[in-house]
Amino acid sequence: MHSFSVTVPSSTGLNLAGTVDMPDSEPVAWALFSHCFTGSRFTPAASRVCKTLAEAGVACLRFDFPGLGQSEGKFEQTSFSMNVDDLVSAYSWLEETFEAPKILIGHSLGGAAALKAGARMPKLTCVATIGAPFDPAHAVLHFADRISEVDENGAVTLTLGGRDVTISKPFLEDLAEINPEAYIPKLRKPLLILHSPLDTTVGIDNAQNIFLTARYPKSLVALDKAD
Known about the structure:
Blueprint lengths: L1 E8 L5 E8 L6 E6 L9 H12 L2 E6 L16 H18 L5 E5 L1 H9 L8 E5 L16 H7 L1 E6 L2 E6 H9 L2 H4 L7 E5 L8 H10 L4 E5 L5
Parallel strand pairs: 3-4, 3-5, 5-6, 6-9, 9-10
Antiparallel strand pairs: 1-2, 2-4, 7-8
């Protein structure tokens, strides 16, 4: 396999930095990867999964959401709903440039975004999530004690994943309006839910709730002893 850099348009016209992991032979299919909260296309889950799939013959696109990694934009001006729109934009770009992806994969909050975006990708044939929260608002639980600062100042700067990120009030307001019980049943794609029972960041109950809410065909795989 080999990898090369691409530029993908966001839903708002920003340039998003992307990487295509390509098999050495003609791809049997294409996949699209949605990375975790405040992460990038170079986080281990994104790079390892995409490279492994490429070695198995599946070409993969992974990209940085706006304001993260090497992409344009400011993180504090983004929202979960915008990330969902950006996934759909990346799907359209792949369809126009190479081939419409058959597989959508999302890690952590990127998995929640994949569950919402998948219904808007007509040629998609399956979705997989890795350690995804049932409710995207789960992302704010780790700084719940700082939310009052957002109400007072309109934003709060936190250190997440070794870097400073600014969480804005519109970002939190958008999360508060998201209802997974409304959109997960509309996915109507074969769904593979991968989750570690030992996950202390996003508990296994999230995977169980996704499984119970989604329509068949669906599978829940416990990644025993994974961290």
